[in-house]
Design goal:
Cytidine Deaminase, domain 2, alpha+beta, single chain, about 30% helix, about 130 residues, 5 strands, binds tetrahydrodeoxyuridine, 4 helices
Length: about 130
């Protein structure tokens, strides 16, 4: 199994814990740190809707809070026929902490496609902007 495939497996497992009673859209994500550790995350919704946190941010914040600062890849898994890319807020965060990493999008039907963050967030605003 390739490194991207094993990251997708971790994202699928994390998706099992999604708390998505409002949208019923369950998302799993995983980030691979250069230390070798993989951190999974799922979306966690809230009755006040706006407090919902995406799977990507949960995975990334778990890793950051464990001291990780260098990352090599991100994966996002849903059961949507059309692969689910990270939302704008998550793209900003992934860019800031992970840079131009591959973002592997996959669904439960076995579809998989990889984009680089530079393509998902062209002309980014970041600490080099000021
Ligand atoms: N969501 C994610 O967790 N990641 C994405 O990349 C897209 C959207 C979640 C937020 C919300 O719980 C649900 O999907 C519907 O927007």
């Amino acid at each position: 199994m390739s490194e991207h495939e094993s990251l997708v497996v971790a994202a699928k497992l994390a998706r099992e814990n999604a708390h998505a009673p409002y949208s019923n859209f369950r998302v799993g994500a995983a980030v691979r740190a250069n230390s070798g550790r993989i951190f999974g995350g799922c979306n966690i919704e809230n009755a006040s809707y706006g407090l919902t946190v995406c799977a990507e941010r949960v995975a990334l914040f778990k890793a950051l809070s464990e001291g990780e600062r260098d990352f090599s890849a991100v994966a996002v898994v849903t059961d949507a026929e059309r692969l689910t890319p990270p939302c704008g807020a998550c793209r900003q965060l992934i860019w800031e902490f992970c840079g131009d990493v591959p973002v592997v999008l996959a669904n439960l039907q076995g579809k998989m496609k990889t984009f680089h963050m530079g393509a998902l967030l062209p002309e980014p605003f970041d600490s080099s902007s000021f």
